[in-house]
Amino acid sequence: MLSRIRERLRPILDRLARHRAGQRPAPVAAGIFVWAGLRTPIDSEDIMTQTKTKLIALTLALIGGGTGTGRAADYVVGAIQIAHPWAPATPEGAKAAPGYLTLTNTGREPDRLISGSFVDAGRVEIVSGGGRATQAIAGGLVIAPGETVTLTPTGPHLMFTGLIGPLERGNTAQSILRFEKAGPIVLEFAIEGAAQKSGGRRGR
């Protein structure tokens, strides 16, 4: 478990070490600060200490603290099962990308996907519909007891907005999803498919 945590933190801490040496952080580093919930300016004197402490605490709490577990492509948090989280590859300059997965509620009470964060984007929206018909789902996505909800381009899905770089096929991108009852879980979205030429909001 500790080796897994170190592997996830290594690229982040490497970027922070370069920042201490006087180099500007790579764009992805700025996204990591937002993803981790940090509000400290990037050029503050104590950014190294604060960021290391918060990232380690976050990883320990979400990976080792029982809020959710990941098994290959499938994840479980509380009564919610999550299968095949993925997002399409994006071209340079794209500002948003959709995210898809399948949610199953094995419990006896409804639960709700209420928010999320994505390491390569500034914001995660929970929406429904495609193109100009896309609308935010007020209050989050409800998963009834015994129900399976598959996120699709024209139905409910996630929208990662404010991308800080292209999503490249074959890579993975870490995310945190938060459920009203089940709580938060860390998971990785597989980046699949060929990048489309146009940026902005896309269904797939």
Characterization of this structure:
The protein has 204 residues and is an alpha+beta fold. The protein is 23% helix and 35% strand. It has 3 helices and 12 strands. Strands 1, 2, 3, 4, 5, 6, 7, 8, 9, 10, 11 and 12 form a 12-stranded mixed sheet that branches.
Run of helices and strands: HHHEEEEEEEEEEEE
The CA-CA distance between the termini, in Å, is 35 Å
Category by helix and strand content: alpha+beta
Portion of residues in beta strands equals 35-45%
Low-confidence stretches: 23-54, 60-73, 198-204
What's the main sheet like? 12 strands, mixed
Q: For the residues shown, what is the average pLDDT?
A: 75
Enumerate how many helices there are, as a single number: 3
Strand runs, count: 12
Based on Cα principal axes, name the global outline: globular
Q: Kindly provide the radius of gyration, computed on alpha-carbon positions and rounded to a whole number of angstroms.
A: 17 Å
CATH class of the largest domain: Mainly Beta
* CATH domain topology of the largest domain: Immunoglobulin-like
Second CATH tier, the architecture of the largest domain: Sandwich
In the CATH hierarchy, what is the superfamily of the largest domain?
PCu(A)C copper chaperone
Total number of domains: 2
How much helicity do the residues have?
Answer: 10-25%
